[in-house]
Amino acid sequence: MAMSSILHGSNHPQLHLMYFPPSSLLIMYNDPLPLTFSDFLKELLLRSKRRWVLSTVELLEEDPGPFPKFAIQVKTSYSNNHKFRLSGTGVTEEPLGLFSIDDNDGGVYVHKTIDRETYPFFHIMFDIIDKETGMLVDKTLALDVAITDINDNAPYFEHPVMKVSVKENLPEGYLPVPLTARDMDQVNTQNSNISIRLLSQEPAEPKIKLKQVEGTKMNQLTFTVVVEAKDHGIPALSSTAVVNLHIMDSNTHQPVFKDKTMESNKEILRVAVTDADTPNTPAWRAVYSIVKGNEEGNYKIETDPKTNEGILTVIKTTLTNVQIAVENEEPLFVCSSGGAESTAKTLTVPPQTVSVTVKVIDVNDPPVFDKKVTDVYVKEEQETGKVLYKPKVIDVDSDVEKIRYELVEDLAGWFTIDPKTGEVTTVKKMDRESPYVNKDNIYTILIQAIDDGEPPATATGTILVHLGDLNDNIPYVVEKKLVMCGKKVIVPVADKDNPPFGCPCFLSLGADNGDKALKSAEAGLVSLKSLPYGNYTVPLVIQDQQGMVVNDTVQIMVCDCGGGDKCKASLPRTSSLDLAAIGILLAGLLLLLRESLKIGKPPRSSPSSKGDGFRLCQSPHSHRQTQQPWFLK
Predict the structure, then answer these.
(1) Do 65 and 44 fall into the same domain?
(2) What is the 3-state secondary structure (H, E, C) of 114-176?
(3) CATH number of the domain bearing residue 189
(4) What is the mean pLDDT of each run of 10 residues along the chain (633 residues)?
(5) Which Pfam families does the record associate with it (predicted)?
C-alpha cells in the first residue's frame, strides 16, 4: 500500500531528521528484535516513486514467547495530541487478542503463539485518532502478515488400522490395498512431502507378494503389515498404519476320491472326496457328474452341501458299471516357482474319476389312487347304508386284489370302509350344520391303501363330501328376553338352514291376532299405547320360506332406562297374559311401510279390530338372511 506523497513546507510537523506530511505514518523496527521474531518485518517500508509502500511481512509459527512480546513500533510526525488504534484479524476479529498497540508510543505486541494450520494469514489496519475529537487524522494504513510454516505436524494415515481380504491367486507385485497419507503442514514444502515404506509384516512368510510357499496351511494366511508415512521436514516426522491382510482361499487343490473303485447294492450310494481347500467355499464344493453308463438317464448324482459327498440315486436299471467324475466349482490354478518368472495361472486338467459297480435291488413302490382328491356331492340327512365312494387304485409292484383299505380320518363317525374293496358307506345321517363341516359345507374323509409288499407301502386319498342343505331346522327367536326402553325393541330371528330354506322369515303376532305377516330381514313390534312398567310375555309366530311354522314367545321388560338401554330400577315379577289381555294388547296390529315391504300371507285367522297393544313393523336397516332382528314398539 502506497503512503501519501511527501509534502514540503514549514507548517508541517517534523520527526527526527525526516520531514513527513500530515497524511503519513512510519512503522519502525525496535532494534534489535529477538531472534525468533527477526523475520517478522522484512523491508517494511519500500521507497518507490516518492511513495512509501508496506510489503507483506512474515511471522514464525509456534513462537514460544514469553508474552506479551514487543514486535514493532509505529511512529508519526503528528503532535502528542493523538493516539493509535489497531484493528483487523488477530485484534477485532478472530483470533481475538493476538495483537495489541500502545495508544501513546505505537508499540505493537504479540500475546500468544500462532498455529499456521489454523491461521496462516493476518490483515491488520492502523489508524491515528485525535484524542480530543476522536476523529481520524489520516487515512487507514493496512499491513499483511503471513505465518511461516515449521514442521510441527506428522503425516497421518486416513485409516490407521485396516482389515482387507485379498484373493490367494492375485498376480505378483500387486496388492489392492489403497493407502492414503496426509500432512497438515504447508503444501509443496519439505514439511508436507511424504515418503511411505513398509516397516514389517507378521508372519514374515509367505511374502505379501502372495508367492505360494509349499506346506503353508490356509489358516496361516493372515498377515499384519505395518506401513510408515514420513515427511521430509526438519526434523522429520512420521506415523504408521496397520493393515491386517486376510488371504482368501482359491482353488489350488483338486478334489480326490477316497476310494478308486466302489460297489453297492443299495438304492442310494454316497461317494466321498477329500479337498485341502477351505471348506464351504467354491474352491472346496464339489460338482459331480456321470461320465459313463448313464446314456439312458437312469441315474442322477447330486452334491450333499454339508458333507460334499456325491449322492448317486438309482432309477430302476440293470446297468452295473458307472464312472463318476468330480471337480470344483472354481477353476483350478497352480503357482509355479521360477525366481523372477514366478507365475500363477489357471490350468485345465482332467477331472478325478471313480468307477462304481452297481447291483440294483427293486424296491416296493406304493399304490397310487386314480385321483388323490375326489369330490362327492350328496344331500344331508339321507338314510344310512348309502355307498358314497369306491376307489380306483393301481400298483406296479403288488397285486391290486391284495391291497387293504383303512379309514384314516372321519371326525364325525359317519362312515365305514370295506377293507377289501375300499367302498365308503354311511353309518349315520350326515348333518350339514355339524361342527365338523367347514364354512363351505364340505366334510373331509381320509382313506389309506396299503399293499402287501416288503416293507408295505401306503397311499392316501382324500374325499371331499359336499353336503346339500335340507329344511331340517326351524326358525327361532335368538334373544328371548328383551328390554323396551321406549315404544320399540329389536327382536332377532334366525334359521340355521341356508336359503331357500332359512330366513328371511315371516313373522306375525300369535294368539290368533293377525292374518298378515312381514317378510323381511328386519322388522319390529310397536306398542300402541304407553304400557305400565313391568314384564310382558308376547307370543310370536315364525315361518321360514318353505312354510315351516313355529310358535314362540318373547319376554318384554318395559322400564325406565333414563335415556340409556338398561333399566334403572327393579321391576315387578314376570306375568303371562291371558287370551283376553293379549287380544286387547294386540288388537291394534298394523302393517307399516306397506309400499316398501314385501308382504306374505301365511294361513292365520282374522285380527281383532279393537284394543291397544303391539303392532308389527319392519326396521329400515333390514339386510340379513340368517338372523333377522325385529323390533317391538
Answers:
(1) yes
(2) CCCCCCCEEEEEEEEEECCCCCECCCCEEEEEEEECCCCCCCEECCCEEEEEEECCCCCCCCC
(3) 2.60.40.60
(4) 30 27 37 35 37 61 86 73 88 92 84 90 88 85 84 83 74 67 83 75 58 39 66 82 69 76 63 89 89 82 87 66 82 63 64 75 80 86 87 84 90 93 92 87 91 85 83 73 78 73 69 44 59 81 71 82 74 50 39 32 34 45 40 36
(5) Cadherin
